[in-house]
């Protein structure tokens, strides 16, 4: 990578996260934003400055209807993809980019560990990347950091690990409307259970977090068990978006667990509900030495997610082509500039 | 790297940390211990089983007087180096290994960021590695993890970082004799100050922790300021090794600080003293979003140090040849086996 050359980045998907991603990309000295991609007709052809409300940062870049249309107008090194939770659907959207050797960082939850639900496509896409030089990575905050990369990183100073416990409590009252809706706010508890049992409610990518941990530790886990239950409101709750009465759903409690034949175990516990007390992230390793780490308040949601995506771009460009995992990349970190990084200087990824 | 082939590892330096490293290496299924290296005549030629008290784990491996003697008897892929704190001296010991394309993981504190004190040798060694395929990395717990890699990793979910604060409080009463001695236990405070001002007391590698953080964030810092003061005993203290009277030195308080022209700042604070209350590690980022993480009790010392060294071996073998930093390597983690790691499978580092 030539450190004097900015990385040309485009944004695929212009929902709230995509807009937030563009605003952050505009502030990074090592990025040149070359365009956006969205299928909504009312956006196509408009300038990114207009859409983001930040005219000075995007003098020329605009919205294209497809990756092909973008590529016909500009060069691009990397794409931030924020347009879905399912591995197969995301791979279908990303494939044309990989065919052109682009590096794609995606918020798609299942892409954190795509071999779990799409093993054949993952292998096929990985083989495609070996011939084109393309790279794809799924990341974010959860999945992507607090309940997977963080416990993995903590294990780096352990001689041995027997078990991994992680818990995250999110006060959904402080979050935007889509998250309050996603956790079932105001829903009849039986209706929530019914939707959850059909895979239509709950936090996506939770099993992938567990699979990433197991993979990094070298554990061969069997079945992953997952439960999703409503948290029942014990008092009436009024948010900016929802009115929840006592007895209705105030949020969700989701657990994934697995163990190996040798007795190694992983247990991840997520609660996201309105008026949650003591929001936090906590990791406890049953390890030698034992380690417990707590983040009071927890890692905040949307901005941190966007940061995780943007911060991963240079690391992904420095990684080997293929379907990459967070554990394949260098230690995640924020970057003010790329100028002082010896590993980047030594590279010729671009 | 052929995942069915174990990594051939030798241990350079057979002090307490070196012995502990051998014991851990023996428990890793992906390691084949091929020998030890130490200059002490009474050790040379003895079996590692005898020296470690673990006869079954080392049926044949023994102690050699030098790397050359080891190499005359066996193949070796990687060496764990635990024999000094100074970059120049360690580079001199490690150079012959790098000439043979070996990967060396070292506990040498200054090698965490060797360009700080030995910029010319670092460049020369890096160039050597480009021709031989050798790799060298400095790591550990402190420096190497709690006050550098951990805050760096936490910045991975930050859109921007203005400042990094880290503190570590170690209860030296719980640690072995060399650490109690190193922190000045029982010394006259003025004598401790005098030794510290001559660079003969204090925690090594602290400025390197700061430099690694600044480098990863892309901050161009100026002068690093460092202070080392005695912690004065406010009561009589009796440990297994020292009797410290009120008014004598009970330990050390060391601080490194730096800032950039733009006002970005790093402040790291280390206290290691007898009878310390509330030992812990704590990181607080002045960032967007802000993040604070606490490890109650702190990451324990010697075993964690050895774990950090051993855990880094496969990551270093997967990295590009050269003088490597922890931030060049994949996210640190413990490994039960290497079998499930796609990145390792795809590699041909060996």
UniProtKB/TrEMBL annotation, chains A, B:
<dbReference type="Pfam" id="PF19328">
    <property type="entry name" value="DAP_DH_C"/>
</dbReference>
<dbReference type="InterPro" id="IPR036291">
    <property type="entry name" value="NAD(P)-bd_dom_sf"/>
</dbReference>
<feature type="domain" description="2,4-diaminopentanoate dehydrogenase C-terminal">
    <location>
        <begin position="145"/>
        <end position="334"/>
    </location>
</feature>
<protein>
    <recommendedName>
        <fullName>2,4-diaminopentanoate dehydrogenase C-terminal domain-containing protein</fullName>
    </recommendedName>
</protein>
<dbReference type="InterPro" id="IPR045760">
    <property type="entry name" value="DAP_DH_C"/>
</dbReference>
């Amino acid at each position: 990578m030539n450190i004097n050359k900015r990385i040309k980045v485009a944004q695929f998907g212009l929902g709230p996260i995509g807009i937030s991603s563009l605003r952050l990309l505009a502030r990074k000295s090592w990025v040149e934003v070359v365009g956006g991609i969205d299928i909504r007709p009312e956006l196509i052809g408009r300038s990114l400055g207009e859409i983001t409300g930040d005219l000075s940062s995007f003098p020329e870049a605009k919205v294209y209807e497809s990756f092909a249309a973008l590529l016909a107008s500009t060069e691009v090194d990397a794409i931030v993809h924020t347009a879905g939770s399912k591995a197969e659907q995301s791979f279908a959207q990303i494939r044309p980019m990989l065919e052109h050797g682009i590096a794609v960082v995606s918020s798609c939850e299942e892409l954190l560990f795509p071999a779990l639900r799409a093993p054949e496509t993952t292998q096929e896409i990985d083989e495609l990347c070996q011939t084109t030089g393309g790279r794809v990575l799924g990341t974010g905050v959860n999945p992507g950091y607090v309940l997977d990369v963080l416990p993995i990183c903590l294990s780096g100073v352990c001689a041995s690990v027997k078990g991994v416990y992680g818990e995250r409590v999110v006060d959904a009252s402080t979050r935007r409307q889509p998250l309050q809706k996603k956790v079932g706010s105001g829903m009849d508890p039986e209706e929530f259970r019914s939707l959850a049992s059909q895979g239509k409610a709950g936090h996506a990518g939770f099993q992938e977090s567990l699979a990433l941990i197991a993979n990094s530790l070298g554990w061969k886990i069997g079945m992953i068990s997952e439960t999703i239950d409503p948290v029942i409101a014990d008092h009436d709750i009024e948010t900016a978006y929802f009115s929840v009465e006592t007895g209705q759903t105030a949020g969700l409690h989701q657990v994934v667990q697995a163990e190996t034949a040798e007795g190694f175990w992983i247990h991840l516990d997520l609660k996201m509900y309105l008026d949650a007390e003591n929001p936090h992230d906590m990791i406890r390793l049953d390890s030698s030495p034992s380690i417990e780490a707590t983040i009071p308040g927890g890692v905040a949601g949307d901005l941190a997610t966007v940061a995780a995506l943007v911060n991963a771009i240079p690391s992904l460009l420095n990684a080997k082509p293929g379907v990459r995992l967070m554990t394949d990349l260098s230690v995640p970190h924020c970057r003010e500039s790329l100028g002082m990084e010896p590993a980047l200087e030594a590279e010729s990824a671009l």
